[in-house]
Amino acid sequence: MTALEVRHLHKRYGRHVAVEDVSFTVEEGEIFGIIGPNGAGKTTTVESIAGLRTPDSGSISVLGLDPIRDRAEVRERLGVQLQESGFPDAIRVSEALELYGSFYRNPADWRELVELLGLTEKRDTRYQALSGGQKQRLSIALALVGSPRVAILDELTTGLDPQARRDTWSLIERVRDTGVTILLVTHFMDEAERLCDRIAVIDGGRVAAVDTPEGLIARSSPVRQVRFRLSQPLDQRVLTELPDVIDVEIVKGRWLVTGRGQLLSSVAGALARARVVAEDLRVDQHNLDDAFVAFTGRAPESAASPEPQAAPESPEASERRDD
Ligand SMILES: Nc1ncnc2c1ncn2[C@@H]1O[C@H](COP(=O)(O)OP(=O)(O)OP(=O)(O)O)[C@@H](O)[C@H]1O
Q: Taking the first listed entry, what is the main subcellular location of this protein, grouped into a coarse class (predicted)?
């Protein structure tokens, strides 16, 4: 079943067009990523899905509901962790979870949530005394406290150290395993590649591509290279005549084979048939950073902000912030 459907979303702030034309669908149970340069319209898109912005045109469906018209129902089914939401310093972890839980018809058992998120020992700790990683985990717990079927996570691991980021990724996979569909906005290509089933690349308020991480990488760069040395001489035609091979070069005894498709297995098969052994074999791997550059013309902005401030929108705070 389709969890989210965005069709031709268009949103402007005054005369400035933030989202020109964005369409995508997210299936239930997916972790769906949104990546793109600063100012591309990612946050405006997810805030529109959450009912915090009113689109100028286009349509949005959240589990078959309209975020503006069916606001109360959508709020019950959609958990939101957005960028730069404030949270009172003195509130304790358990108090925050109980308070937020009280806003929903079917709140999750917050004790189970603190356990899922590794915060059991911090349940009586005040917000101001939590580390960046613990604040982030609390903000995820708060986004999940209403037992949502869909969760929006915006800049999930910005400001976290590498270990805390990896811990958060495992946690998100555990949350998905409980059946929650996740829409993830991220600046980190490693995060998107590791977590997302599919990704939309948004650039200049439009969708540049939607695909699996592997699909985006392959589409952005169908050409691959294999490098190796050979212990015995080999007639170059053994490789140049392979259908996947575009070019073969030998530089200082090192073979460099450029090609498409299943290049590595084609080359390995040909070498095995010729009974020569490749040494020091390397495959030049493209990754999502390369795909990002190919689709947007810019390098990904992955600089983390020093102080994570994320906390989810409370239902009160999430009154529509329309301009
Ligand atoms: N409330 C607002 N009023 C006016 N312009 C806005 C407002 N919010 C965002 N914008 C502008 O709309 C465009 C899209 O912003 P948005 O925050 O959706 O992009 P983004 O892709 O999430 O960017 P980032 O990665 O930097 O968070 C930007 O040019 C931004 O400056």
A: membrane
299 C-beta neighbours (distance < 10 Å), count: 12
The Å distance, Cα 286 to ligand 1 centre, comes to 30
Domain of 131, CATH number, reads 3.40.50.300
For 301, phi then psi, to 5°, come to: -90, 100
Ligand 1 atom closest to 45 (CA): 18
Average of per-residue pLDDT values in the chain: 88
pLDDT in tens, 90-105: 899 999 999 999 999 9
| 18 in contact with ligand 1, CB cutoff 6 A | yes
Residues 88 and 9 in one domain: yes
193 CA from centroid of ligand 1 (Å)? 24
Q: Cα–Cα distance between 235 and 237 in angstroms, integer?
A: 5
Count of structural domains within the chain? 2
Q: Check residue 311 and give its pLDDT.
A: 46
Please check whether residues 31 and 166 belong to one and the same domain: yes
Provide the b/e sequence for 17-34 (b: ≥16 CB within 10 Å). bbbbebebbbeeebbbbb
Q: Are 188 and 149 found together in one domain? A: yes
Helix (H, G, I), strand (E, B) or coil at 308: coil
ipTM over 0.85: yes
Same domain, 38 and 139: yes
